Amino acid sequence: MTARKPSRRRQTWDEIHTIADALGSTVLTTRRLAGGFSHETCLVTLSDGQVVVRLGGPDPAVEAAVMATARRHVPVPEVLLVVPAAAGEPDGRPAMVLEYVSGTPLEQVLGADGSTGPPLGDLGAEVGRVVAGIGTVPYDRPGFFADGQLTVRGERPWSAQLPEVAASCMDAVQAGRLDRATRDDWVKLCAEHAPALTRVDAHARLVHADINPKNILVSVNGGGWRVAAVLDWEFSYAGCPYADAGNMLRFGPDYPAEFVDGFRAGFAGHQPADLPLPDDWAYLGRILDMFALSDLVTRPAGNPVADQAAAQIRRWVAAGIPG
Length: 323
Known about the structure:
Layout: H1 8-22, E1 27-33, E2 39-46, E3 49-56, H2 60-70, E4 79-83, E5 95-99, E6 104-105, H3 106-111, H4 120-134, E7 143-145, E8 152-154, H5 158-172, H6 180-193, E9 205-207, E10 216-221, E11 224-230, E12 237-239, H7 242-248, H8 257-268, H9 281-296, H10 304-319
Antiparallel strand pairs: 1-2, 2-3, 3-5, 4-5, 6-10, 7-8, 7-12, 9-12, 10-11
């Protein structure tokens, strides 16, 4: 008789208790948190405090190394423990244990009516300052990180890759999300604007690559806004920091205008001195974001962010890239 596999809930419970044992503590309560495309995230109350446990996803060693580097420049939770996937265990998941940081998700603040708290323009400026700080970390060449030492694996220029990535993703999109004509027009739009990226192909700065209001915790300190933590660094790479600005402004029309204006000013005003900011940095950021938009619309049916990305693609195909 074949043994029954444990339920996912039971597996998560067992994994968290194993982690607690490694930390020399015991589990009191657990609560699943939102966020994370490829992993499960839980807030765990231990006998000696609270931690955040991330289960699943790619090898966390690279992400942990990125977070340790970024933490010297921007607010990032401390990594307390990294657990690789168990060898020989087909269902074994890697795990990362983070310190718990108190704060309010930025998306919750932007979704409120804005009638309480400091001005949203000040919040935008603070977020822009922190996002600019991510791009102060230099690397020797652009590309993706290959190991826990953050060795950068060289890549073909982004300007050459964008049309190919867009075409591949559009072939994978469900017809019900984008019709064939829109997909073809998107590939053409990417090919038309990709040459502009030759100006930033050589940039080799830390890019978060998923910097959006879900992945930023904020708080009020001394009467003003501050970013408490930047979360979820699993997609980070070395490249052009304008990509993070493009990511944050992707759905900018959905945010309060004063926040968007503050973000633009904060990001532009805190760029590293050795990387002069061109006047059209926001446009370049939008072109870089075309990689992410192309990938997002390949997500399964019912994914709300994928549906938002599809709507964005339809707008850009119809009216062109803003700015």
